[in-house]
Design goal:
Blueprint lengths: L1 E5 L5 H10 L3 E5 L3 H8 L11 H10 L3 E4 L2 H4 L5 E4 L4 E2 L5 E2 L1 H13 L5 E4 L7 H14 L8 E4 L9 H7 L2 E5 L2 H14 L14 E3 L3 H32 L3 H8 L22 H8 L4 H11 L1 H13 L6 E5 L15 H10 L3 E5 L5 H6 L13 E4 L19 E4 L13 E4 L5
Helix pairs in contact: 1-3, 5-6, 9-11, 9-12, 13-14
């Protein structure tokens, strides 16, 4: 097959590499000439994706994958077009479709009969049928369901382990017609491999959910569940702090029973998925009070951490506080919706002097994000662990000279590692 993948980001590029590794001709489209040049030079534009570097070299050198910014090169004659363009949500939780609108229109201008168009970007329910299919028809002059087919198939992978996740989880699809769904099933069976999963009620592979709307909903449901679960864990954590209890012991005990799956509390919920997709669900179902309450609870955790610091340290006005970690999660160079932003804002609002350290970011990159960079070994008054980078597990007082209080927002360390320092953990009573 000839396959076009639109947007070569942290999801799109591994997908393109996966498709090419199965022997298909893949053309990746990206608006960034820098990304295009790097991919054509067999160089990943971002670090940290397991297996990507070697796989990218193999498929580019073999000629199976190339990149371009020219839709007229990639789209005509394609058997399948997979669109993984980001969808953003504004401060009022309204989806901003601008990038996806632009990509859809660019695809439509060059769409040829017989193409399967699959949207993998997470969307509010109804978007594929009500927005994308009509727009493709309008721009191309073709008719969905007879000249071309549109399906929704959500990405279900996590940055850093995408190739493993592609094998591990069923590939969900939902078409606008039975014919489109059959084509999508055949397409994904031809480009993906699946691990055996004895824990599933049906064999691992491509699962047709019966409609684009059901597939859209499934992605929102699985991610919103995680946000709600974490919100509950965070509320349990705050109660445990007041009640003199270690919430981690409680969660471990509760989860020993097979019907309990309580997640871990923490200082923030970040990334492109968990903080965003519940808002997309609320776009469809604004009366979902449980979802709204969980989102509010999770958004309030950075301020809660600053309150813990004040409770242990006292007045933090003028105190130099090191925030350990800018990335939203350990080992991933990404700050999308990272807790570092509200945490630094809350510290500054209380009169502290926040400085930020992250082993994945240079000082110039931290400054570009609006932060004052911090280097281990420089004096500080206190610190807050924001990201669970593996290296932070090895830190001690000598790495942060003068530290009086450490607030561990991810439970990466222990009190034993911090002699002479007030060590506090979210969810554990002082």
């Amino acid at each position: 097959m000839k396959i076009a993948v639109v947007a070569l980001g942290k999801i799109g590029l591994p997908l393109a590499v996966q498709f090419a590794s199965k022997g298909h001709e893949v053309v990746g489209v990206d608006v960034s000439s820098t990304v295009v040049d790097l991919v054509n030079a067999s160089t990943a534009p971002f670090p940290g994706e397991a297996g990507l570097d070697d796989k990218l070299v193999d498929v580019v050198r073999s000629g199976a994958l190339r990149a371009t910014s020219d839709y007229s090169d990639a789209i005509p004659g394609a058997d399948a077009v997979v669109i993984v363009v980001p969808l953003f949500v504004d401060s009022d939780a309204r989806p901003d479709f601008a990038w996806m609108d632009s990509a859809t229109e660019s695809v439509g201008r060059h769409l040829t009969p017989g193409t399967l168009v699959s949207y993998e970007t997470t969307l509010p329910v109804g978007t594929t049928r009500e927005r994308w299919a009509p727009r493709l028809e309008s721009v191309s002059g073709l008719v969905e369901g007879s000249d071309f087919d549109v399906v929704f198939s959500p990405e279900r992978v996590l940055s850093g382990r995408i190739f493993a996740d592609l094998r591990k989880y069923p590939k969900l699809i939902g078409g606008l017609s039975e014919h489109g769904a059959r084509r999508a099933t055949e397409f994904y069976e031809a480009v993906l491999d699946f691990d055996e999963r004895v824990d599933l009620a049906r064999p691992n592979g491509v699962w047709d959910l019966g409609s684009a709307e059901a597939a859209e909903f499934a992605k929102l449901a699985e991610t919103t569940y995680r946000d709600v679960n974490i919100g509950l864990a965070n509320q349990f954590a705050q109660y445990a702090e007041r009640a003199g209890i270690d919430v981690y012991n409680v969660i471990e005990a509760s989860n020993s029973q097979p019907y309990s799956h309580i997640h871990r509390p923490g200082i923030a919920v970040g990334g492109h998925c968990i903080p965003v997709y519940p808002r997309l669900y609320l776009w469809n179902d604004p009366g979902a009070t449980i979802v709204s309450a969980a989102r509010q609870a999770n958004a309030g955790m950075p301020v809660h951490a600053v309150g813990m610091l004040e409770g242990a340290y006292g007045d933090i006005r003028g105190a130099r506080v090191a925030v350990l970690g800018a990335a939203y999660r350990g080992g991933v160079k990404e700050t999308a919706f990272s807790g570092v932003f509200p945490l630094v804002e809350a510290l500054a609002a209380r009169g502290a002097v926040p400085v930020v350290h992250d082993p994945l970011y240079s000082d110039d990159e931290l400054r570009a994000l609006g932060f004052s960079p911090y280097s281990l070994g420089e004096p500080v008054d206190a610190a807050i662990v924001q990201t669970d980078h593996a290296g932070y597990r090895e830190l001690g007082p000598s790495d942060l000279p003068g530290i009086a209080v450490l607030i561990d927002g991810r439970r990466v360390s222990s009190a034993d590692a911090w002699p002479g320092v007030l060590y506090r953990v979210i969810g554990v009573a002082a």
